[in-house]
């Protein structure tokens, strides 16, 4: 069975429904019971994860929450748009072709990354996926997915390379700010030749991709270890003059993926990024370090 990726309209719909439920003081369990649906079904709808959105559910919820007719029609239209945008034939969700390799929970991230206008990321030990070369990605995948066949490994590399089209697309290319710890430069992935190629690629990114290295000499800007994180920011809706999605923080660790979109959480990660940035090299010095390190690997 094909997985349907979470889209921006789907998340918007879920957020509206959650806010409406909370405004009338109903718990998720009570609201689900009153429309004769399971609590899990309503929770997935509010999180934008339902495989299909039923118009009957939207109508029932609008009636339960006392939504005015005009807004109810807007919500139903949004539901139709979300359902249309998530069909497997939609080429804007190309990664559904690799559904056997991409975890279901990563669909959300893929959809958000493709819709974002800016990415801010900190990576302490590896080069971020959005900037990896095919050889570097292949070397990492060969170890992490050691049980994969050669074809599956190559498909994983294809997914990684396809993601990078967000940077090079002609219309509104993704703006990327990368902070990479010096450890990522020193830890060898695959071979010295692969590392040299990867570091030269980092030194030659397009203008919309800014790379800065956090040197060992900078110590611990936050007083301790902090894992990798990504902050995604979205374009503004020209009609409402508000972002089409709230800024979202994505944190991935071994075996888990977490999303934060509350103002408090997003601000906390922005502050962390700002503190790390203060000890990072500027772009010019970073390029010099990357090229010198590449020469060392080539020697």
Description:
The chain is α/β, with parallel strands linked by helices and 299 residues long. The chain folds into two domains: 8-85, lambda repressor-like DNA-binding domains (434 Repressor (Amino-terminal Domain), Orthogonal Bundle); 92-298, 2-Layer Sandwich (Endonuclease, Chain A). The chain is 50% helix and 12% strand. It is built from 13 helices and six strands. The protein has a six-stranded mixed beta sheet, with helices on both faces. Strand 5 and strand 6 form a beta hairpin. The longest helix is centred in the N-terminal third of the chain and has 17 residues, at 69-85. The relative contact order is 0.11.
Q: What is the count of DSSP helices, taking H or I runs of 4+ residues?
A: 13
What structural class do the secondary elements suggest? alpha/beta
What's the main sheet like?
6 strands, mixed
Distance N terminus to C terminus? 51 Å
Q: Tell me the helix content.
A: 40-55%
Number of domains: 2
Report mean pLDDT, rounded to a whole number.
Answer: 86
CATH architecture assignment name of the largest domain: 2-Layer Sandwich
| CATH class descriptor name of the largest domain | Alpha Beta
**DSSP strand (E) fraction?**
5-15%
Instruction: Outline the low-pLDDT stretches.
Output: 1-5, 87-91
Overall morphology: elongated
Order of strands across the widest beta sheet? 3-2-1-4-5-6
Q: Count the beta strands.
A: 6
Order of helices and strands: HHHHHHEHHHEHHEEEEHH
């Amino acid at each position: 069975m094909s997985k349907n990726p979470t889209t921006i309209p789907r998340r918007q719909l879920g957020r509206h429904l959650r806010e409406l439920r909370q405004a009338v003081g109903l718990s998720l369990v009570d609201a689900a019971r009153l429309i004769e649906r399971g609590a899990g079904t309503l929770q997935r709808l509010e999180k934008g994860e339902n495989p299909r959105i039923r118009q009957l559910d939207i109508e029932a919820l609008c009636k339960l929450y006392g939504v005015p007719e005009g807004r109810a029609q807007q919500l139903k239209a949004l539901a139709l748009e979300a359902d249309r945008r998530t069909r497997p034939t939609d080429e804007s969700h190309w990664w559904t072709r690799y559904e056997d390799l991409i975890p279901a929970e990563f669909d959300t991230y893929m959809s958000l990354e493709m819709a974002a206008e800016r990415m801010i990321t900190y990576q302490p030990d590896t080069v971020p996926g959005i900037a990896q070369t095919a050889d570097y990605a292949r070397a990492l995948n060969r170890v992490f997915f050691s049980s994969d066949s050669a074809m599956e490994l190559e498909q994983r590399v294809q997914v990684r390379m396809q993601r990078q089209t967000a940077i090079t697309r002609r219309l509104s290319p993704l703006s990327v700010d990368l902070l990479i710890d010096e450890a990522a430069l020193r830890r060898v992935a695959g071979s010295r030749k692969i590392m040299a190629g990867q570091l030269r690629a980092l030194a030659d990114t397009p203008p919309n991709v800014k790379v800065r290295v956090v040197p060992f000499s900078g110590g611990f800007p936050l007083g301790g270890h902090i894992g990798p994180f990504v902050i995604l920011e979205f374009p503004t809706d020209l009609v409402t003059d508000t972002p089409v999605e709230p800024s979202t923080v994505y944190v991935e660790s071994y075996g888990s993926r977490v999303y934060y979109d509350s103002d408090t959480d997003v601000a906390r990660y922005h502050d962390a990024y700002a503190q790390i940035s203060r000890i990072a090299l500027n772009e010019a010095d970073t390029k010099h370090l990357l090229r010198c390190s590449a020469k060392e690997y080539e020697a």
